[in-house]
Design brief:
Blueprint lengths: L2 H17 L2 H17 L7 H29 L1 H6 L7 H4 L4 H22 L2 H21 L6 H19 L8 H9 L1
Length: 184
């Protein structure tokens, strides 16, 4: 690999990290994993729980990254006008809307599939709802009405609910703790 090829690869990786807003996504997924770990479900052995945490982390990063990519696709024009967001990959033109859109679709679908396959249908459906609500309701609503702050709070709180629900596998879910975490 030549120096310029490795530089362009490193630049592309950096752009994808910016596209998924890695630090924000990590914090969101962290709350999902903590909620998963505190759910009072004794069905997992330690080894299985560690593997489950890793799978949950990957699925959560895929779903959250997808939502953040959708956000940047839909806000390309306004992001390019603000100093704080102008250097994002889509806004700056380093990544096309098509590339970011395909990435968002693939990562979102993969993450929801992982939630369904490794955890349960409920966690997959709540994850899909959160992705849809953030990407396609909250993001466009930000430019229309301040009610978007309240709407955005829902996908902001859903990761705790997702983690709790995922902990129950296909067993009967104890919803009380999930809704308490969501409310907090």
């Amino acid at each position: 690999m030549t120096g310029s090829t490795s530089y362009s690869l490193a630049s592309k990786v950096k752009d994808y990290f910016q596209l998924i807003k890695f630090t924000l996504s990590f914090m969101v997924v962290f709350s999902t994993v903590v909620s998963f770990l505190i759910a009072p479900n004794e069905l997992f052995y330690v080894r299985e729980k560690i593997i489950s945490v890793l799978l949950l982390f990957v699925a959560g990063m895929l779903i959250t990254g997808s939502a953040n990519a959708i956000n940047q696709v839909l806000e390309k024009t306004s992001d390019s006008l603000m100093k704080r967001t102008a250097q994002r990959p889509v806004a700056s033109g380093r990544m096309s809307v098509t590339e970011a859109g395909i990435f968002a679709f693939i990562t979102g679908a993969a993450g929801v599939f992982m939630m369904w396959n490794y955890f349960n249908t409920t966690s997959a459906m709540v994850s899909l709802f959160s992705l849809f609500l953030y990407g396609f309701i909250y993001t466009p609503l930000k430019k229309v009405n301040s009610i978007s702050v309240l709407v955005g709070a829902i996908p902001g709180a859903l990761p705790c609910l997702i983690g709790w629900v995922a902990a129950y596998g296909n067993e009967t879910i104890s919803w009380t703790g999930a809704w308490v975490l969501f409310g907090i």
